[in-house]
Amino acid sequence: MLGWADRYRRLRVRTNADTPEDCVTALQFGAQGIGLCRTEHMFFNEKRIHQFRKMILAGKRNARLEHLRGLLPYQRKDFYKILKTMDGFPVTIRLLDPPFHEFLDVSTKGVEELAKDLKENKKEVTRRINQLQEVNPMLGRRGCRLGISYPEITEMQAEAILGAALKLKREKKNPKVEIMVPLVGNLEEFLNQKNIIIKTYEELSKKHKQKLSYKIGTMIEVPRACFSADKIAKHADFFSFGTNDLTQTTFGFSRDDVGSFFPTYFEKGILALDPFESIDEKSVGALMDEAVKRGKKNNPVLSLGICGEHGGDPKSIHFCTRIGLHYVSCSPFRVPVARLAAAQAVL
Ligand code: PEP
Ligand code: MG
Asked: Secondary structure of the chain in the HEC alphabet?
């Protein structure tokens, strides 16, 4: 049945995956690439999160660079494995987008270890941790705001991604890398990160005497980006709609806190559907449509996708077909549903 569906659908179906295991599962379900690899998820094991915290808490740039050097081999190896598993399929790897509160919840023992490794006293480490705390972490120094504040983080990630792809090319594989900048609201933010990626590529390419074709694009996940889409499209290879954040910022609903009032909203009929599950076509959908029109006008070959949770929701998939997206990306287990819904949308 899915074979029949594939004959009719216009949308390609990719997956959201951060590990080679997820990639294998998704390929078995018929995924045609990765639409979102969240690199912050690669830092969540104990050893790496410690290294990440040292980097972010380092007082001086030189110290931060040293800790980043420590993270580079891990990242390169992760990307190598993912690109190898997905050989020949497009893989969109997103630059770091960590809400800080998920990384700075450090235990007393953790503070002690950090103090030892950073050669600082515990009081100073606690002071730096407190300094980085934010009142509204989901709207704070996330996404490209981090890479703009600390360009060396973007440099390290670009080096790891492109380094892995170049290695695969030397091994006669066919890596199809797409580097994605998160939480962009205006052109300048995108160009800032794009320039770092290009510079890193040029250095690597010279060092290895090797060339690689790759893409650079952006998430469209805040309303401001939808209205800058015409400008950004001139410089981007692709847009991927981050409808989780786009819903959060359009409604002004905190993704992490809706549980406290949504049940009442549904009970009283204020909301008929959960907008985090199904695209609210009148608001979030209208913004997407606007961004697609503006984007296509200035870049007819712009690739358009969606990687928010809605990418696996049949009703939203119908909407994505109508506004002319090229692909949806969803969790591995929703790939078959997405293939079917994409065909039903056409029929
Ligand atoms: C999104 O915002 O829709 C998205 C895919 O990014 P994240 O969920 O990681 O914020
Ligand atoms: Mg997001």
From this structure: CHHHHHHHCCCEEEEECCCHHHHHHHHHCCCCCEEEEEHHHHHCCHHHHHHHHHHHHCCCHHHHHHHHHHHHHHHHHHHHHHHHHCCCCEEEEECCCCCHHHCCCCCHHHHHHHHHHHCCCHHHHHHHHHHHCCCCHHHCCCCHHHHHHCHHHHHHHHHHHHHHHHHHHHCCCCCEEEEEECCCCCHHHHHHHHHHHHHHHHHHHHHHCCCCCCEEEEEECCHHHHHCHHHHHCCCCEEEECHHHHHHHHHCCCCCCHHHCHHHHHHCCCCCCCCCCCCCHHHHHHHHHHHHHHHHHHCCCCEEEECCHHHHCHHHHHHHHHCCCCEEEECHHHHHHHHHHHHHHHC
